[in-house]
Design brief:
Blueprint (H helix, E strand, L loop, with lengths): L6 E2 L1 H4 L16 H10 L4 E2 L3 H10 L10 H10 L4 E5 L7 H11 L4 E5 L15 E2 L4 H14 L1
Parallel strand pairs: 1-2, 3-4, 4-5
Helix pairs in contact: 4-5
């Protein structure tokens, strides 16, 4: 058996959370969770949208959540975003189409496609889109870089 890369689910390192019923974000620092997962042999961790939103808000960023592609398109007409986190499981639109539409509406905004799968050869419609990786520092660096250049 060759090298196996394991990714810990969000629940592996989140601690006591109450998904769909209460607090969905972790009480533990994201950097600490990443370090603990790495020590346990995981190559990455999963991120839950409410947890990532909490991390960004704690860092001082303003966030907005859309629960559908249609709502995302409406929000993008009303608000200028520096960063858009897009779940790959958008139920009401095909993902590549939605990413292209969001790019047309807000070409300066960075788009991160949140995926539960490892991306081998991404030929996404939007070459500027990045696939969100688990490393805390990398996500923060991307956000800060984009905000600094805006």
């Amino acid at each position: 058996m060759g090298d196996v890369e394991l990714v810990g689910l969000y629940w592996t390192v989140s601690g006591p959370v109450e998904v769909h019923f209460g607090r969905e974000w972790s009480l533990f620092d994201l950097r600490d969770r990443c370090e603990q997962a790495a020590r346990a042999g995981f190559r990455g961790i999963g991120l839950w949208h409410a947890d990532l939103e909490h991390v960004l808000e704690t860092e001082g960023y303003r966030t907005a959540t859309a629960w559908s592609g249609k709502e995302a398109l409406t929000l993008s007409d009303e608000t200028n975003f520096d960063l858009m986190l897009i779940n790959e499981h958008v139920s009401d639109f095909e993902l590549n189409w939605l990413v292209r539409e969001l790019q047309k509406k807000q070409p300066r905004a960075m788009r991160l496609v949140m995926s539960g799968q490892r991306q081998k050869n991404s030929n996404a419609a939007n070459a500027q889109s990045k696939v969100c990786k688990w490393e805390h520092g990398e996500v923060k660096a991307q956000v800060r870089s984009r905000l600094a250049s805006a």
